[in-house]
Model the fold of this input.
Amino acid sequence: MTYLSDAGRVVLSNAAQRDDLSVLPLPETLTIKGGALKNVLAGLSKRGLIREVQTEPQRIVITSEGMAAIGVEPDDEGETPDPAEFDDY
Done:
């Protein structure tokens, strides 16, 4: 089981609910800023739960590992896109 801080769980849960799986913008309920936010995102990235996608503008998306960490499984009908789909953008 993956340990997540409250802020990390909020970031991942928010991204998992979006059609494009984007981490940003953060939800208004998340009150961390600056260095603390940078540390949360860096920790999630280091653990492979989020990653940067080379697009214009650059995006940060939740990975399948990040979705598993919060207990979200892809729908059988394919409604949840795989973040790997964004590699070519």
Notes: The first helix runs from residue 6 to 16. The first strand starts at residue 50 and ends at 53. The two ends are 32 Å apart (CA to CA).
